[in-house]
Structure formats: C-alpha cells, structure tokens
C-alpha cells in the first residue's frame, strides 16, 4: 500500500511539473507577442518620423529595418514555442491519464480491503459461536 502511495505522489509531482512547463511556455509566448506588438509600434513611430514607409526606399530608417527583423525573429520563435506547447500539452494529458489510472487502481484496492474486513469479522463470530 505504501509503495503505491509513493507512486501516486511521484505521478502527481510529474503532472505538476508538466503543468508548470506548459504555463512557462504559454508565458513565453505571451511575452514574445507583447514584444512584437511593441516593435510594431516602434516601427510605425520611426516610419512616421522619417516620413518613409517603403522598406526598399534608400531613406528608410535603419532602426525600423532592425526592428522589423527582430519582430520577424520573434514570430519564428513563437511558432517554435507553439509546437513545443502542443507537445507539452500532450505530455501533460498522458501524465494526467496515468495518474487517474493509478488513483483508480488505488481506490479499487481500498474498496476491496473494506469488503474483506466485514466478511472476516462475521467469520470470526461464527467460529466463536461454534466454540462456545
């Protein structure tokens, strides 16, 4: 029984760890999206200040070009993180399913233990009556 409790604790720890991983990835995606929005604002301000919105124009601001490159890199990173998030959610679902199975097995064994106790108690009463 105690070894099963240890297994349940281990599985709960694994599930919690996978939840943290999913939350961390979601947090990173949100941060990257916020940074991309900030870069979009900076690009718009720089274009307005320079009066040039054509990226191929010779007078297009270098800062705006660099900010666009950073924004594009963030978009690529977000796409990669979304793939990792999908995989992490799958791992979390698998870990939760394993935990549910082990807890259900533990519950069945506990129920069996309760069923056996009354039967043995009645058996002992019969033995006591026969002896007495």
From TrEMBL:
<feature type="coiled-coil region">
    <location>
        <begin position="78"/>
        <end position="112"/>
    </location>
</feature>
<keyword id="KW-0282">Flagellum</keyword>
<keyword id="KW-0966">Cell projection</keyword>
<keyword id="KW-0969">Cilium</keyword>
<keyword id="KW-0175">Coiled coil</keyword>
<protein>
    <submittedName>
        <fullName>Flagellar export protein FliJ</fullName>
    </submittedName>
</protein>
